[in-house]
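User: quick one, sequence for these tokens?
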């Protein structure tokens, strides 16, 4: 019974982005208001380039009011407080790009043109290797 309770408590604790890193690049959209026009416009622009996102192995998360959502605004079990602290997003609103190495590659206020993100990623050594191996 004690082992069961310990296992249960591990699942309840929110996750950070470790499960995605090394496999994915991550875009974090942080805004206190989930209905923000800036946030909606940024999501719309990213969704219009979904093929480019997939090609670059990008996943998108929205952080709003200490909750992490996917791009469709479904809640996730990711720990917003941990992510905010880890990437220095405490007093930040906008878009942060996290590389496969876990480093912050871009941190800008909304709205960031997806082409800017893709060009930055494509200039990275790891992406150059991916392109070469395709």
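Assistant:
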């Amino acid at each position: 019974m004690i082992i069961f309770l310990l296992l249960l408590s591990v699942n309840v604790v929110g996750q950070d982005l470790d499960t995605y890193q090394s496999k994915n690049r991550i875009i974090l959209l942080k805004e206190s208001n989930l209905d923000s026009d800036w946030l909606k416009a940024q999501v719309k622009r990213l969704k219009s380039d979904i093929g480019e996102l997939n090609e670059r192995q990008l996943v998108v998360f929205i952080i709003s009011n200490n909750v992490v959502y996917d791009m469709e605004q479904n809640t996730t079990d990711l720990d917003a407080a941990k992510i905010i602290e880890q990437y220095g997003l405490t007093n930040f609103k906008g878009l942060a790009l996290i590389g496969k190495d876990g480093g912050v590659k871009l941190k800008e206020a909304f709205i960031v043109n997806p082409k800017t993100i893709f060009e930055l990623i494509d200039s990275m050594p790891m992406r150059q290797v991916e392109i070469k191996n395709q």
